[in-house]
Amino acid sequence: MFHQTTTKTVTILLLFIGMAIYTVFAGFYGRELVIEAAYLVILAISLDMVAGYGGMVSLCHGAIFGIGAYVFAILTGMMGISPFIALVAAIAASGLFGLFVGAVTSRTSGIFFIMTTLAFGQMVYVYTFENRALGGDDGMSGVARLDLSMIGIDTNDSLQFALLAVVFAALSYAVAAFIMRSGFGRTLVGIRSNEVRMRALGLPVLRYKAFAFGISGALAGLAGTIAAQQTMFVSPEMMSWMMSGEALVIVILGGLGTLVGAAVGAVLFVFLQHEVSEVTRYWHMVVGLVLILVVVLGNRGAYGQIEHLLERRKKGAPKASALEVAAEKDASHA
Amino acid sequence: MLEARGLKKSFGQIDVTNDVTILVEKGERRVILGPNGAGKTTLFNILVGELKPSAGTIHLDGRDVTGDTVEARAKRGLARSYQKNNLFTELTLKENLALAVATASGASGWFLRDTLNDTDILAKVRDVAAKVGLSELLDHPVDAVSYGARRQLEVGLALATDPSVILMDEPTSGVGPEMIQGFHRLLKTLPRDLTVVIIEHDMDLALDVADRVSVLNYGELVFEGTPDETRGSSLVNEIYLGGRADA
To answer: Quick one: DSSP state of residue B27?
Structure first.
């Protein structure tokens, strides 16, 4: 079950404050990295909600991320609609697509679930790639950014836009954490833990799984809108299975089923990607080695391992119930 | 209350349940006896909807639930505990019971409230935990408590949904004689308006708590009667001594 522990609170605050401070002192390139990290934080959190807490390992979150980006791009770039309306529409469209995918795939599990989500993702990718009206493999440019001039924020300024992206990431964490500690979030963990028992208790499991996928999709769509605004350009590559795989690597790198781990993993991933790529062109191999190391050393991820060490419960001998204690006493008196 | 008529379940050419009719009155304690492989658990699986019958009907409170899903039957008040523990193993006992209480009360869909911090849900969790003797262990994860405590939790999860009918599949399997007596006391304290159907191997426990006893053998209902009639039945004795009854 999700608990907003002190470790989680301190870590997530340090992470976002650190990102904000870095943004202030970094140059343009550094701020671009922060924006990339921020939307990957949101995407990874959205994936962790369903994969880490719901047990639904999705390989179509890249596509949902891309749907958010494309809907935002189409509405602002092609149709000239207000970026605010486009933002809401992009989140809604991604959420609805997530709900649809969830409704169809929630009857499956394990490898079949993963492959079905991959199939959905690839269909979206291929459709976008081949559709000339959407720019085909060339993608689309002319994406607008949110206009926040009424509150004195210039989103065309790299510093202010990067800070805005960090704020969106922080808000996304807050929303995800709030949901995961609600009755719905608790139920989702119950489904992951024992779906058969949840049914036996009277829960319409498929409906809950589909709805969780919809919420997760909405967050992934938000991440896509930020990515689209960063470069003011969208391309089918945003929705390829590689993007889904990257999101999954991030979640595992940080710690599956911790939420904070997803955020830590995203920042770690961007750091590794850009720092290591300056040294060697084989940076993917380094990320791969780190991932293998993380999995082999306890399978908890970078943050998950720290949390485990700090907050692990002292496990003693199996605890007997009052009934057993009474039974033992009766037996000893007999 | 719970009416199963002409239930049949076949896997290929093999009939694992064959023309079983069981009518259980409201508040009745019905014990299902039978040797291993008699089809007792299969009967439970059919009653709760985990298996679809090849033939026959099931009525709960006069309503035909034969085509209903597991969750729909559970919502109508049909709960079960499992022969092999079927728990939320990485969660604490409190979280296990809270999931059951929240699902039954409709709180599982709450978005703005935490079921683990809700006064009413926690009160119900404590109440159920006290009934099954787990009050002291609520904050422990399932995988850190003993087997006996897990068996109690198995029953507790079913009770936490406030069922009108509870099916208990060998609640005392694998526990010692003292704990069997503990379950015995628990069964005696359950509300009289709760209908209880128990699969039980322990004959003494079964006959002490039962209002009526049904005996299955090779998937067929071969005997039904009161505990006294069961004690005096040569057929039941023959089945329990290992022979095939030609009823």
So the answer is: T
